[in-house]
Amino acid sequence: GRIADGTLVWAHEQTAGRGQRGNGWQSMPDHNITLSIILHPELDADRQFYLTKVVSLGVKEFVEDFIGNSAEVRIKWPNDIYVGDKKIAGILIENILRGEQITTTVIGIGLNVNQHEFGAELKNATSLKLITGKTYDIKAGIDALCEHIEPRYLQLKTHKRNLLDVDYHKCLYRLDKLCEYEKDGTRFKATLTGVNGQGKLLLKLENGEGLSCDFKGVGFL
Questions:
Q1: Model confidence over 93-108: pLDDT tens digits?
Q2: Whole-prediction pTM value?
Q3: Pairing state of beta strands 33-39 and 210-213?
């Protein structure tokens, strides 16, 4: 049957957590927030990136509340949440379409809360505990996370997309900074200028030429 809009499935432990690009998501049992939210946005398929904006902003604002430093919390395109240069949360969104409409979306969120040790391969991982030194109640954290995501989702449902556009843009990691990227095996320097309506990353090369990239087409270095 149809699952209610806003249904949340919370895993205390993941044995096969998944991230973007087919990567795994590692999480110590009972230490972190690992959940999925089921939504029925009734959104045109060509507007699907708004779901990324909704959830990324909600998770970002949740993290800000806990660490008390909004300047350090950024959205690494398309939807990783960074504190400084370290990753604290990842988001995986999967959509079900009927014709040209998204009828159901499953939003997976992995957010590092109390984990204080990570594998050697996760050199840029961090958690709320590593940042603040505090230990948090996971259930209370999930409640707070939902309280941040819901108003952003309501902005989408009530067609206040311009607010999502503005806030997502100003929160982008590396915005207006000249940094190194990789595309098709070639490294280059460019300035991140924003994201277009289809969710493609917009870069300005050193020679002034513009470049738009989809998620699998460019890497941050």
A1: 999 999 999 999 999 9
A2: 0.92
A3: unpaired
Mean pLDDT over 76-82 rounds to 95
Place of tokens 């989408």: 156
| Residue 144 burial (C-beta neighbours within 10 Å; 0-12, 13-18, 19+) | middle
Backbone torsions φ then ψ of 82, nearest 5 degrees: -115, 145
Q: Following DSSP, what letter does each residue of 56-86 receive, concatenated?
A: HHHHHHHHHHHHS-GGGEEEETTTEEEETTE
Quick one: pLDDT at residue 215?
A: 79
Entry field: residues in the chain: 221
Given a cut of 80, whether residue 182 has pLDDT beyond it is yes
Q: Give every CB contact of residue 7 below 8 A, 6+ residues apart in sequence.
A: 37, 38
DSSP state of 221: -
Residue 158 to residues 43, 99, 145: CA-CA distances in angstroms?
12, 22, 21
Q: How would you class 79 by CB atoms within 10 Å of its CB: exposed for 0-12, middle for 13-18, buried for 19 or more?
A: buried
